[in-house]
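Worked example

This section walks through a single chain of length 130. The input is the sequence exactly as stored; nothing has been trimmed or padded.
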Amino acid sequence: MGKSSLACLLALYWAEKGKETAIWDRDRQGSAEAFVAHIEHEKIEDYREGKEYDHILIDTPGGLQATEIKKLVKVSDLILIPFQLSPTDMRSTGETVRHLKDIDEINYRGEWQDLCVGDRIVTIPVSIGD
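Given that input, the structure is written out below as tokens.
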């Protein structure tokens, strides 16, 4: 599962729970934006600055520059990093997590809990909190 798929599935989950949810698609491919247009769910829309939402999901392209990462991290409460279980992806994901920990302006609220989502692995169903 990639970044766009994860963002879209979380948006759908929260929308089905009655939460006002926006997707801010920062990826040039526009997959998340296309999902919003296709799904036509009353609780999911493209992000509009100034509007209040229960949840905003930011879909980013891979390989963001440090300055762009800093901007997005400053306004984030949770960062999910999907990756494939290959040595290259695992190494670059580790580097990303280390860079995130070095950002002083991060919206840090306690202990760091690295939450990375591996692709192509066996998963155990769990309940996702609201």
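What to look for: Helices lie at 3-16, 31-39, 66-74, 87-101.
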